[in-house]
Write a structure and sequence with these properties.
By secondary structure, this protein is mostly beta strands. It has 1 helix and 13 strands; from the N terminus they run αβββββββββββββ. A hairpin with a 6-residue loop joins strand 8 and strand 9. The longest helix has 13 residues. The chain is elongated and about 75 Å long.
């Protein structure tokens, strides 16, 4: 039954209806303003994958990394532009990678705090990074065409996620970058193999030979890296 007002009660009813109007009607709730939203719309680590996959309603995740990953960066995206993010105590702009977060061997909890534009509402996300311990093997890498005495691994250089391995006695006739490493037409000409790590998996990126791979050149007897180059 609707609200009815008789003449004697008109003043009281008017006051009551005024209060209902000021409070937003007789029912329902007012949605939160955008300035009070402290939610991430996305979160991307510099390598590895979040488990489970990112969902704004989920606030706890894990990531597995190898022990050769001493740091990790996070790129958060806020849902509301006025919100701000702090990653492990380091202010980080939305859609921009955070400063490197140092990782201990074993688990490292990383906290991401989102503060809404109102400066009051906050949400906290936690990512536990599981970095392999010294007891865990980091990787097992072999040449794509392993041949006895090619001395794969006689020279090694590692920088960031890039690993180069020299094989000073590799004997294929390939030249430059790429080519077929499975023949043995240029004995002991040498080669270099390039691997790139993603999380805890390393994949071959390139097979390098001299432009003129002559026998006994021992290309790859020494290798070096600067950054990822």
């Amino acid at each position: 039954m609707g609200l009815q007002c008789t003449a004697p009660k008109l003043l009281v009813c008017g006051l009551w209806l005024g209060l209902l109007t000021a409070c937003g009607g007789t029912g329902g709730s007012t949605p939160p303003s955008e300035s009070s939203i402290a939610t991430l719309a996305g979160l991307v680590p510099s390598f590895g994958s979040l488990t489970p996959a990112f969902d704004p309603s989920v606030t706890t995740y894990t990531i597995e990394t190898g022990r050769l990953a001493p740091t990790l960066r996070f790129t958060p995206t806020v849902r509301e532009p006025s919100a701000t993010v702090v990653v492990q105590g380091l202010p980080t702009a939305s859609t921009v990678a955070s400063p490197p977060v140092p990782l201990a061997l074993g688990p490292t909890p990383v906290t991401l705090e989102v503060t809404a534009g109102d400066g009051v509402t906050q949400e906290r996300y936690i990512v536990v990074v599981l970095r392999a311990s010294l007891a865990d093997p980091e990787a097992y890498v072999k040449a794509p065409a392993p041949v006895r005495s090619q001395q794969f691994g006689s020279a090694v250089a590692l920088s960031g996620d890039t690993l180069v391995v020299g094989a000073r006695n590799e004997s294929s006739s390939a030249m430059g970058i790429g080519g077929d490493p499975h023949d043995s037409a240029r004995p002991i000409s040498g080669a270099v193999f390039v691997f790139v790590r993603t999380a805890r998996t390393s994949t071959q990126q390139a097979h390098l030979k001299a432009s003129t791979p002559d026998p006994l050149h021992h290309f790859g007897a020494s290798v070096a890296l600067s950054g990822d180059n």
